[in-house]
Amino acid sequence: MPDRPNLKQFVHLKSGDLVTHPVWASCHSVDDDEPWYEETDEETCRPWPSEIPVAADEMYLVAGEFAMADGSCHQGFATPALEPNEMGLIQPQIFSPSGKRHAFSLGMFPRQEEINGFYTDFAKRPSPVFPVTFSALPGLTTAFCSGVIQGFMASSGSAVRVIA
Questions:
Q1: CA separation (Å) from 92 to 27, 73, 78, 141, 161?
Q2: What are the C-alpha distances in Å from 158 to residues 55, 56, 84, 90?
Q3: Is 47 helix (H, G, I), strand (E, B) or coil?
Q4: Which pLDDT tens digit goes with each residue over 147-163?
Q5: What are the sequence ranges of the domains in the chain?
Q6: Is the pTM of this model over 0.85?
Q7: SS3 labels along 93-161
């Protein structure tokens, strides 16, 4: 029986995981024929050991670089998409200096505590942060995986709007 890969829940990904393995795959989109598939759920991902660059044909998380308005740079990741500026699909995530992961797209019911936690963790106010530019590291994807984040976003259906 083949070895089970390093399975991680999405919420447990750390910046070091993306340094070691710059591309991760969603197990529920690529591994339904694996013997360990039943151990996974839609939040489980694993390092992608196959060909790089990846496309947007499956759900991948690719390492990226983020630059805030004040010029500070941070690590993060995003999901390659078929169309540019699809922030609801690309879902950029950034790691703070403390290593905490932060999302910019806060779902249908954004909480002010998440926004406040971001500013506290980065020790910044909004003006040095936004706009944030980001892009996948070179050579990791052939799909769209870059953009400009104008602020925290909320989703309603398929639409995404800036809220703060």
A1: 19, 14, 4, 15, 14
A2: 22, 18, 15, 13
A3: strand
A4: 999 999 888 766 677 77
A5: 8-162
A6: yes
A7: EEECCCCCEEECECCCCCCHHHHHHHHHHHCCCHHHHCCEEEEECCCCECCECEEEECCCEEEECCEEE
